[in-house]
Amino acid sequence: MPFYSKRDLQFQLFENQKVLELTCFKYFEDHSQETFQMVLEAADQIAVTSLFPLLTDMDRNEPQLIGGKIKVHEGMKKIVRQFGQDGWINATFSYEEGGQQLPNTIHLAAGFIFQAANYSSSVYPFLTTGAANLIRTFGSQQLIDTFTPNMYNGKWQGTMALTEPDAGSSLTDLSTMAIPTEKEGVFKIQGQKIYISCGDHDACENVIHLMLARIKGAPAGVKGISLFVVPQKRVPDNEPNDVLTEGIYHKMGYKGAPIAHLMIGSNDSAEGYLVGEANKGLSYMFQMMNEARVGVGMNAAAIGTAAFQSSLAYAKERPQGRKITEKDPSKPQIPIIEHADVKRMLLFQKSVTEGALSLLFFCAKLGDLVHVAEGKEKEEASLLLDLLTPIAKTYPSEICCLTTSAAVQILGGAGYTTDFPVEQYYREARIHPIHEGTTGIHGLDLLGRKVLMQEGKALQLFAAEIIKTISSAKKLNHLIPFAEKLEKYLQRAQQTSFHLFGKASQNPEEFLSDASLYLEYIGILTISWQWLSQGITAHEALDKGSPETDFYKGKLMAMRYFFEYELVKMDGLGKRLVSDDMLTVEMKGEWF
Amino acid sequence: MPFYSKRDLQFQLFENQKVLELTCFKYFEDHSQETFQMVLEAADQIAVTSLFPLLTDMDRNEPQLIGGKIKVHEGMKKIVRQFGQDGWINATFSYEEGGQQLPNTIHLAAGFIFQAANYSSSVYPFLTTGAANLIRTFGSQQLIDTFTPNMYNGKWQGTMALTEPDAGSSLTDLSTMAIPTEKEGVFKIQGQKIYISCGDHDACENVIHLMLARIKGAPAGVKGISLFVVPQKRVPDNEPNDVLTEGIYHKMGYKGAPIAHLMIGSNDSAEGYLVGEANKGLSYMFQMMNEARVGVGMNAAAIGTAAFQSSLAYAKERPQGRKITEKDPSKPQIPIIEHADVKRMLLFQKSVTEGALSLLFFCAKLGDLVHVAEGKEKEEASLLLDLLTPIAKTYPSEICCLTTSAAVQILGGAGYTTDFPVEQYYREARIHPIHEGTTGIHGLDLLGRKVLMQEGKALQLFAAEIIKTISSAKKLNHLIPFAEKLEKYLQRAQQTSFHLFGKASQNPEEFLSDASLYLEYIGILTISWQWLSQGITAHEALDKGSPETDFYKGKLMAMRYFFEYELVKMDGLGKRLVSDDMLTVEMKGEWF
User: Fold this and answer.
1) Closest CB to B418 among A220, A250, A341
2) What is the residue range of A42's domain?
3) Tens of pLDDT along B535-575?
4) CB–CB of A357/A299 below 8 Å?
5) Do A110 and A19 belong to one domain?
6) Which H or E run contains B190?
7) Same-domain pairing of B148 and B20
8) What's the pLDDT tens digit per position in B341-366?
9) Which residue intervals define the domain Acetyl-CoA dehydrogenase-like C-terminal in the entry (chains A, B) (predicted)?
C-alpha cells in the first residue's frame, strides 16, 4: 500500500525548491543529484522493508512498563540500530563529526519518508538527533566525546526532557533542581519529568536526557534555567544514575513510541553535566527549536500524506453508487473516485498536504541557508525562518487532523474499523497541535513576537517573497487570476495585521486574544503562496512540453482547489480578527 | 465528573422549546412538568450510577467473538435489562402498547443523558426502540404480538440490518434474497449483512433483525426492496434461525457496542417474516429515518457535551501560566480558564453543542407535532422536519469532531493520554458523520431533494421561522444587531440557494457537486437562528430579574461567540458555492 508519492517528493525537492542550488555552497559541494537520490532511495528501502510492515503491529502492541523498565516492540531493536549504523542520526553533521554534510532539506525529506511509513518508529532517531545536536553545539569537547558517538551509532537514545507536572506550556515554572558538587560542571539533579518521549526503553543500551533544570540559587523564571546531560546509566562505568521510570503513559496514538514519567535523584544520586553556560538552558533549547518545530510540522504532513494515499487507493478500487445522472440500477456501480464529493475530499487532502510539504521544504532550505550562507542572505533567511516556524509547525499539525478525518470519511464505515490504517492515522495526527508548543503558544509566538521583531522586518521580508512569486505568476497567462487573488488577500492580511498592531501597546491581552486565529489566517495565506509557487513550476513544465501531463494537471487542480475552497476561509477569519467584540477576554469562568 | 449540564437541559426543554405546550394535546394530556422531571431524574440516576462508571472500562474491554457468539462487557447485562424493565424502550408508545405516551422530545432528552454518560451503552436500547417501532408501525398484529413484548422489556435486542459488502451508501444495490415459502408472509432469507450494530451479543436472549432484502423476482433498484423480521432464534421454539455471526469489527471508538458481520441462510434455513407489503421496505425505513437521524445528531451532541464538561472542569482546576501582562514569575500560576485562548476553545464547545441541542430539541418537538397535531400544523411540522433532518443529523456530527478535538487541546498532553476521557470522546465522535447516511448523502438529500420539494415550500417555511425569530429579537434592544446580522445572512443564503437552483436542471452533477458544503453553509445559518432564539429566552429571563445571572450571561456570551466566530464562516463558504469553477467535477482520478 502506498504511503507517500515518490513523484511528488521529487517535485518538491528538485523542481519546486531547487534544492540542488545548495550544492554551490562549500559545505555541500560534494553533494549532487545522485547523492541526494541515493539518500532518498535508501530511506525508501528502510521505510518499505522495515518500518511500514510494523505500522499496525506497533499500534496493537503498546510499550509496557515491566519491573521499572519500558519494553517496546521487539522489532524496534533492529530499527534503532539500523538508523544509527546507516548514519541517519548525524547525517547533516560535518565530516569531522562523522557526518555526511547532508543538507537539512534532504535529511528532512528522508525523515518524511520514515514518518509516513510509521510515525512511532521515526520518533526514536528524531529525538536522538535533536539531543546530540544540543551537545555538539553547546557542550564541551568532553561531553561531545563522551556522549555523542554512541548516540550517532544508535546504541544510545537521546531525549528532550523539559516538561514537569507543573510546567508544561509554562516552562518558566520548571522546578527540577541542580545542586553543584565539588566537580566542576557536575551537578546533583532532583525532580521529575513527565511526557518524556523515548524516556526509557529496551531497544537501546542507554538513554541520554537533555534536561532543563534550575541551579540552586538561580534567578526565578526563564532566566534561571540551565541545560544538563543526564544519562540513565553513567559513562563509562555503566552504573545506574538514579533516573527511575516511574510510569508510562498510554495514549490515543503513536503508541509504538514510549512516553515516560521519570523521577530523577530520588536517592540523591543523579548526576547531571552542565551544557554550556549556566542559566542559558532555555536559549540553547530555543536555538534548536526551529528545526524541531519544522520537524513536527513534517510529522503531521507525513501522516496526512499517508492517510491521503491510503484513501486515494481505496477510492480508486471501491465501487459504490452511480453517476447522479444515471438512474438505471442495473448498470454496474462506479469507483467512488468518480463522485464529485469524494474528489473534493481527495483534493482537500492533496492540496493541504502538498501545500504544507512545500512550505516545510521551503523552511528546511532556509535552515540550510542559515547554516551555510553569509551576510545578508544568512540574516534574511534566519529572520524569515523565525517568522515562518510557528506557521510551519502549526498549519500542518492542525489541518492534518482534518485531512486524516477526510480519509476516514472516504472509507466510510470501513474507515472507522481497525481493518484499515486510516483510523490509526486519525489518532496519530492529533498529537501534533499539542507537542513542541501548543497551537495557542505558537499563535502568541507569531503575533506577540515574530511579526513585531526588528520593527516588522520579518513580516516585510515575508510579504516581499510573496510579491516575488506573484510577479512571476503574472507572467503566465493561466496563473494571472490566481496571482491577482493572492495579491488582494495579501493586502488584506497586511491591513488586518496593522489593525491588530494598533492594539499591541494599549491592551496586550486584547491584542493577543485571537492569536490562534491570526496564526490560522496567516497560515492559509502562506499555503496559498506556496501553491502559487507550485503552480508556476507545474505550468512551466507543461509549457516545456513535459510528457507527465497527468501529474502536472493534478498539481494545477490542487492549486485551484486551494484557492477556491481554502483561501476563501480568510474572509470569515479576517472579519473576526478586526472585530471589536472582545468577548473571549470579557468572558468569565463562572458564566460557563 | 460532570458529563452534561442539568441546568442547560432544563433551559433547552422548558424555557426555550416550551415543551410543556405539548401537554395541551390529548395524547400527552396526562403529562406535566412533574412527570417530565421525574423522567429526567430517573435517566440521570441510571446515567450516574450505571452508565458513566463503565465508560472507560467498556472502552478498554472490547466485545469479542468467541465460538461464534459475541461476548460484551459483563456490566451490559444489567443495563440492558434495566432499560427494558424501566420502560425506556417503548416510553413514547401508547398506553395500549404498554407505553407511557411520553413525548419524543422528553425521550430524546433522556437519551441525551445516557449518551453523554456512555455512548456505547446507549446504543443497545436506541436500536431496539427503532426496530420495535418498525414492527408496531408496519407489521401485522401477529408480528407485533410475537416480537415486541420481549423487545420492550429488554430481553431481546433489536437491530437495523441494512448494509451489505456491496451496498453501503448505495442501498439500491442490496442483494440479500428472500424466497417465498408455502407459508404466507414467511420467506427464506439468504445473504450477508455487515456493520450491524448490536447484531449479536450475550447480554440479551434473542436478536430481532429488521432486515432489508429483495424478494426473488422483485424489480431492480430501490423499488424491489422489502422489510423482514429475521430473528436470531425462532419464536417460540427458540431454535437457531441460521443467522450466523461471521465476524466482529474492531473500531476506533464506541468499542463497548458490538458490530457484527452476519451470514444469513448459509444452511438454507433462515426464516424471515415480511413486514407490511412487499417492495415497500425502503419507504418504511425512510419513514422512521427522521427520528433515527435526529437521534444520531443527538449522539454527537451528547458526546460533544461530555467532552465540553470534562475540559471545562479541567480548565477551572489546572494552573498553568500567568496573565499576558504579568511578567513576574514568582507570582502564582493561574487556572487556564483565565486565558483568552482557552476561553475561546470552551466557548466554541459551548456555543456549538448548546446550539446543536437547541436545534435537536426543536426537531424533536416537530416530531411530536407530526405525531399529535392535525391539519396545517401537522403538515407544516412534517415538511419542516423533513428539511431540517439532514442538518440536525450532520451539523452536530461534523462539528462535534471539532469540539471534542478542542477538548483534547485544552488538556494538552494530558488530553492525549488515556488518563482522561477526552481522547475517548474524540474517537467516539468520529463515527457520526458516517453512520445513518454519510455527510455526503445528507448533502445530496438536502440540496437535491429537500429544498426543492413541493416547489420549495419547506424552504419557505424554514425562512419564515427564522424571520419570526428575527422579529422577536428586534424587540429586544441588545439583540437588534444580532437580528440584523442574521437577516443579512438569511438573505444571502436565499440568493445562494437560488443561484444553485438555476443549475439543477441544466447540469445536475454540477448542481450537486458542492452539496456537502451547502449543507455546512445552511447548518451554520440554522444554528445561528437557534442561538438568536436562545438569546431571546436568556434576555427575557434577565429582563424579568432572574437571579441566575451567571447562567444567562453565559448564554448571551455563547450566542455572541457563535455570531462572531462561526456565522462569519458563511462568507467563505458562500463565495465558493456561487463560484463557476467546477473543479471537483472536472478532476480526473488519474491526475491525483
Assistant:
1) A250
2) 6-152
3) 999 999 999 999 999 999 999 999 999 999 999 999 999 99
4) no
5) yes
6) strand B186-197
7) yes
8) 999 999 999 999 999 999 999 999 99
9) 462-587
